[in-house]
């Protein structure tokens, strides 16, 4: 991690966490469970929102609502994905998953209200004059033709007779994780009413690089460092970028994508340096 | 059911169903499961949206998005509420619950994407210039301080040492079912940028009357007609309006509330007649 990116990421984490404490007072068990689900992540999506907003001179008060909103959507998807009827995971971000810490009903409801809360945040006055296109884009990215459809494809793949092809895995991951990363990186442009295309190209390469790195971590990583179970996909015989491209092939594809992501930021000149660092970080992270 | 209300309700059901078929093409299993969850309900909430929009001369194209949106939120809450880890129900609207028809993972994800879809619909251009306050109000009504908090209270009540008091049940139900009914009835005024207060008073009385009627149905109803299991609450020893007020007391309270709901519509004159009929229907329904 370069010093510039490391500082920007940890600043983003601190700002989003402070904002979370203000917007989500721990009034009762439900609020507490929601806050639990939000804590301990890298907040890469929230960072992308804040950084793309900075590139477009968007007021930080607007960007913070959007950054917290996307972290809520991401956290809700993890809580539901970890449920016994889905991936049945016990560990997330180094802590017990929400249904292990409390119970399944609390996990279902905390996930549900994290999603609602994301839209509540985006409908706040602070978001400014371009809230509606941002809300529309989030609903499209997170819903039946975006993230959730990717999760459905993922479940179907588990019981499929033949492993997925590279094209199918790429589609699956573009929906499951790519859509939210794309929304995050485009958020700054959308909040400013500007053209999100350069950031979209950046994010599409970044999102795929991120997922390839995830598959590499599943093979090379250590559960204690990664903060969740590893080798689950490999042991289950699931097709991954590593099983399809080989370990070295996957690493060099991730490198190419990180380079592609950097090139997409050319219109931003030197101001895009931190986002370029983020692309390098994504393929070299150990958790 | 009076002829005027019966006609208005069945017209609303037909219009919302047609709109649903257009907005939710059955592209894959996820879309199919979402549509399954939406079908077969009374669409009382959608009716309230269309009828309140009519009172405020809101274009029907706008009202239909809002009507379908609230039916999506209601359907998602039922799908998740029926899960084994929650109420564990096998029957809903006379059909197998979604996790019985398919499986739990599909039920979790179909519910999740129904919620997302509701916000996607409300962010459409058709909704017009007052979409944002409508979205904000829905997120508040459905989330951590609204419907989901009511569900949490309901779960907590099941393991509580003493049954809830009348005040506690009233609070629980105002959140669990009242908030969405209130949003629905106020939607027409909000879409028009008008004052929703008369409709709010109507809806608050209507929502409570609706829930008292539900508790009466749980005692007096027949599962085949009601379309879901009955006597669950009574058999579980849960406090209900009937256990707290007695059957006759509950019936006369429901009557008073229906009258109160009607009185709240006085500012609308004769135009409010169909909504007054709806209040009478709510306390006399058999399903």
Give an overview in words.
The structure is a homodimer of 287-residue chains. With 287 residues, chain A is mostly helical. Chain A has a single domain, classed as Farnesyl Diphosphate Synthase (Orthogonal Bundle), CATH 1.10.600.10. In chain A, 71% of the residues lie in helices and 1% in strands. Chain A is built from 15 helices and two strands. The first copy, chain A, has a two-stranded antiparallel sheet. In chain A, strand 1 and strand 2 form a beta hairpin. The longest helix of chain A is centred in the middle third of the chain and has 26 residues. Chain A is globular. The two termini of chain A are 12 Å apart. The mean pLDDT of chain A is 93. Chains A, B: InterPro entries: Isoprenoid_synthase_dom_sf, Polyprenyl_synt, Polyprenyl_synt_CS, Prenyl_diphosphate_synthase. Chains A, B: This is Polyprenyl synthetase family protein. Chains A, B: Pfam families: polyprenyl_synt. Chains A, B: It comes from Tritonibacter scottomollicae.
């Amino acid at each position: 991690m370069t010093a510039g990116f490391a500082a920007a990421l940890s600043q983003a984490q601190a700002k989003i966490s402070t904002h979370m404490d203000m917007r989500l007072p721990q009034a009762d068990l439900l609020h507490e469970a929601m806050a639990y689900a939000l804590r301990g992540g890298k907040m890469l999506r929230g960072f992308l929102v804040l950084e793309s907003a900075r590139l477009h001179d968007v007021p930080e008060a607007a960007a913070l609502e959007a950054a917290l909103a996307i972290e809520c959507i991401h956290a809700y998807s993890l809580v539901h994905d970890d449920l016994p009827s889905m991936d049945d995971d016990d560990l997330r971000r180094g802590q017990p998953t929400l249904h292990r810490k409390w119970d399944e009903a609390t996990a279902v409801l905390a996930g549900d209200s994290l999603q609602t809360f994301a839209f509540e945040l985006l409908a706040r006055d602070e978001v400014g004059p371009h809230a509606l296109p941002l809300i529309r884009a989030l609903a499209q990215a997170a819903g039946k033709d975006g993230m959730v459809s990717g999760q459905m494809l993922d479940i179907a793949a588990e019981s499929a007779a033949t492993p997925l092809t590279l094209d199918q895995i790429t589609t699956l991951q573009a929906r499951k994780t790519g859509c939210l990363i794309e929304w995050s990186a485009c958020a700054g442009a959308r909040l400013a009413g500007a053209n999100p295309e350069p950031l979209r190209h950046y994010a599409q390469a970044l999102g795929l690089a991120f997922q390839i790195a995830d598959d590499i971590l599943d093979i090379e990583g250590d559960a204690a460092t990664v903060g969740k179970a590893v080798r689950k996909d490999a042991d289950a015989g699931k097709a991954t970028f590593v099983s399809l491209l080989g370990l070295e092939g996957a690493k060099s594809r991730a490198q190419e994508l990180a380079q592609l992501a950097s090139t997409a930021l050319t219109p931003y000149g030197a101001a895009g340096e931190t986002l370029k660092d983020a692309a390098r970080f994504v393929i070299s992270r150990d958790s």
